[in-house]
Amino acid sequence: MSQSEPPGGVFGLSYDGETRVSEALKLVSTAIIVLVGAWPIYWMTQLAFTQYETVESAVTVFPTPDIFTFDNFNVLTDPEMYTYMFNTVVVAIGTIVTVVLVSLIAGYGLARLEFPQKENFARILLIGYLFSPIVIGIPLYQIWQNIGLLGTRFGLIIALSAISMPFAVWLMWKYIMTIPEAHEEAAWVDGASRWRGFRDVVVPQCRPAIIAAALFAFALAWNDFTFAQILLPQTETTTFAPGILRAMGQAQFLPDAYLMAISLAMTLPPLLFAYFMQSYLLKGFQVRAL
Amino acid sequence: MPDIEIRNLTKVYEESGNEIVAVDDVDLTIKDGEFVTLVGPSGCGKTTTLRCVAGLNKPTSGTITFGDREVTDKPVQERNIALLFQDIALYPHMSVQENMAYGLKITGFSREERIARVEEAAELLQITDQLEKMPADLSGGQQQRVALGRSLVRDPEIFLFDEPMSDLDAKLKAELRPVIEKVTDEIGCPTLYVTHDQEEAMTMSDRVAVINDGELAQVAPPKEVYDEPNSQFVSQFIGQPSTQFFDGKVGAVNGTAELDVGGYEYDLARDGLEGWAGEDIRVGLRPQYIRVSEDSEAGIPATHLLDEPLGDATHSFFDTEFGEIVVVTDPDFVGDGKEYGLVFDDEYIQLFDTDSGVRIA
Question: How many CB atoms lie within 10 A of CB B297?
Fold first, then answer.
């Protein structure tokens, strides 16, 4: 073997051949991922813009002008659907606010204060993830019933926040640890109280982690089915996911095209949120030793 | 402006059951307008001392007084100090202007006053054109200027520095040293400057406090610390290259004292050696005071190892019967690996107790 010969690669081809093959394979795998990820969204979108009679009677792959329509979206003005969506938005925002506030303060405490069994406390936090929502859901139903939180959006916000919290607290803890303590000490030297230093110096620097935690909480709250189904039994307070299932079972007239229109309306916010926040999101998740 | 008085300051850390004494009974007074440098090797307790003065650490015992105000139990916010950190610690999400004005904002100054003060400080520090930038866009030296400005605008009672230049390169350090002196002069308050860099200590201070293992070894003006170290530690720590040490024995003491270093005899016209006749002793001599003779018969025979030419002087290394010896030689000196004789200038010989390291004569 001569010196200039590259070492044999995975496919035992020449250097150039190897590069071409791996480029081609990269393209193929990207195509597969895009197809799997994007196909359901495409299908939903195209059906949402197709006349519902057509959807019921034939399989179409594109809403050509003769079958194209916006009418499916009129279903969103239906008071029931409107309630579901409003509830979902309220619950999602409530969960985000709760998760961000609590995890910031808890993460700060873990990062900056000394207390016994700190490490163990943080580890136990993660045990929450070992249980599926349905396991927690049933005891929660009983507890919420006793203390009067059952059927309230507030009750669902608390339950969903609790589910997001371990991750969010862990994230904040590790993120705040990357902020040099000297920044805060400089603020104290400048005369800021501990709380003021936290607010003025730590919180603004946590923006990537706040966005990551918010996105995580948002995704969880927006997509939640189990908790909403268990904890919001009445139709007027329920959220989108269980609501649409109920609507499918109960409504006399709810064609697939309408369902797709509703689904599309509910899928867009998280998509946009994730898309525009992705640079922050990556920074937030980049914390070492997470 | 008050003096800083540190009395019997002790700080004990507890780490996995072990007690570590970081600062051991330190007494130090810094007069109004005085610049005192706390210098020592890493882990000697100098930063802990400073943090106790700042109020960021709580001393185990001892008191800290600013003028007639005892601040030992006061939190850092109530001490009205300025502190420059090793990692500069500018608020990365605020502009230079906001960084400098933050303290004033907390104190409740009006917007106009804040801007006026910041501009005045920026002018003194020559960073007027940087005010709109973010800290990340500044060089290390400029960042440290901003940090100085942040302290300057608040007109503090006490100025503390925690190795503020240890991350900067030598040229920037030399550039910033006069700036720091200018700023501390401008404020005119007592200054405590912590560093491990003896050059900073020597060049900027009114007095140098050498600290070792949590205890103050010597507190004196820079020249005195250099010329008249009171212990082996200070002699070895201050000065570049380090003092060279040898084992010696005191002979007859009679007006002059005879000193025997490995068979080489010196007559020292020195007081304070009464009672040391026949005792072992530690001999120290700065490399500046060792002369290299072409004649290998003169003084201690030495084989030249290598030269480090610095431009204004050369550090030459020799192999001798005492091990490796560094000598400061003429800038044009080229040793060439030949044989030489090392001659001690006995006027500058320092003598230390072999056990305690305390200076004897």
Answer: 8
Helices (H) and strands (E) in chain B, counts: 8, 20
Q: How far apart are CA B91 and CA A188, in angstroms?
A: 12
Which domain CATH number covers A192?
Answer: 1.10.3720.10
Residues of chain B with pLDDT under 50: none
**What is the pLDDT at residue A194?**
94
CATH 2.60.120.10 for the B244-352 domain, yes or no: no
> Which pLDDT value is given to residue A235?
67
Residue A274 tokens, joined: 């994730």
Q: Min CA distance, B83 vs chain A (Å)?
A: 7
| Nearest-angstrom CA–CA distance, A29 and A35 | 10
What is the span of the domain harbouring residue A173?
A: 72-285
Q: Over chain A (290 residues), what is each successive 10-residue block's mean pLDDT? A: 54 79 92 90 89 82 84 84 87 95 95 88 80 84 90 90 89 92 94 94 92 89 88 79 82 80 86 81 63
What is the rounded distance in angstroms from the CA atom of residue A220 to the CA atom of residue A94? Answer: 12
Contacts of residue A180 in chain B, CB cutoff 8 Å?
A: 87, 89
Q: Is residue A3 part of a domain?
A: no
The predicted-structure confidence for B140-176, as pLDDT tens digits, reads as follows 889 999 999 998 898 899 999 999 888 888 888 888 8
d(CA A228, CA A160) in angstroms, rounded, equals 9
A-chain residues within 8 Å CB-CB of B167?
Answer: none
Query: Contacts of residue B157 in chain A, CB cutoff 8 Å?
Result: none
Nearest to B262 by CA among B275, B244, B274: B244
Domain ranges of chain B: 4-237, 244-352
Cβ of B293 under 8 Å from any chain A Cβ? no
B188: left (phi over 0), alpha (psi -120 to 50) or beta: left
Q: What architecture (CATH level 2) is domain B4-237?
A: 3-Layer(aba) Sandwich (3.40)
Q: What is the largest CA-CA distance in chain B?
A: 78
Q: Do domains B4-237 and B244-352 have the same CATH topology?
A: no
Candidates B251, B341, B259, B262; CA nearest to B295 is B341
